[in-house]
Amino acid sequence: MTSRYELNDDEHQGSCLVRIYFPEFDDESELLMEVENLNIQKKLPAELKSDIKLQILKFLEIKKLDLYAKHSTKNVGA
Asked: Is the pTM for the entire model greater than 0.85?
């Protein structure tokens, strides 16, 4: 699944696509996320764009782990 998100903070405005997928269809595969097509309104060095992508991925990973802990069937009855 790919979703488009708008970025708007004090320093950056723009948009990106976030791709969320399972690489394999089995009980042990982990949900993966990739930030694609990061478009920032002002011109930025590639290193800074990479840092922004990393910040987005860290934020999403925290949310993913929180939701997994909340909804995991492995935690039912534990």
From this structure: no
